[in-house]
Amino acid sequence: MPAERLQPDPLRRRFADRSPWTPEWPGDNARLDIARGPTPAAVLVPLVQRPEGLRVLLTERTAHLRDHAGQVSFPGGRVDPGDAHAVDTALREAEEEIGLARRQVEVLGELPVYATVTNFQVTPVVALVEPPSVLTLDAFEVAEAFEVPLEFLMTPAHHRRHEFEFNGLPRRFLSMPWHGAPDAAATPREYFIWGATAAMLRNLYRFLMR
What is the pLDDT of residues 131-189, one digit of tens each? Predict the structure, then answer.
């Protein structure tokens, strides 16, 4: 990915281009056998404007949650009846989960809906974000928030493809492992970005490469 495409103004121009395109990963290649029907949801893909370049703000979910415990994800969740649209959902959830104020967010646009294995129909909302001074994490849902350079995530050499078999059927997923800064004990942090989060990032890469 040319570095000049990963700057705020080129991103604004790219999202202003409404020409149609087809995402590489429209959804998980299987569905769990669950009773409820498709559930609308939205996530915020926050691109934090740091002096060294844009960085993607991600969260690690707490270990006790029923859905996707311990996984790396974007802030987001299901659409509430009071939400006007997917953007409203993404901004509300980001404020609730990590304390990201709406006034700090410049929405660029939306990526195509991604269908998850649990039958959520997720709209990724991509936005530029002023560097937050302090994030207030929802301790029940979010164990940690961290940033990864957008350039790293938009480099296809870092996109790993996995294939396996489950219940006699083929499955596949993407991952983008990230080694973060060492913790207080000087132990390097490792984050396994995979599944729907990695697939939506791959779709963003394809969108920006057009």
Answer: 877 899 999 999 999 999 999 999 999 999 998 876 677 788 999 999 987 766 777 78
The residue among 57, 5, 12 whose CA lies nearest residue 197 is: 57
Q: At residue 104, what are phi and psi to the nearest 5 degrees? A: -90, 0
Nearest to 120 by CA among 174, 65, 195: 195
Among residues 103, 104, 80, the alpha carbon closest in space to that of 93 is found at: 80
Per domain, the residue ranges of the chain are 3-209
**Fold topology of 3-209:** Nucleoside Triphosphate Pyrophosphohydrolase (3.90.79)
- Whole-angstrom CA distances from 144 to 47, 48, 151 are 17, 16, 22
d(CA 68, CA 72): 9
Q: How far is CA 13 from the centre of its chain?
A: 21
pTM for this one? Answer: 0.92
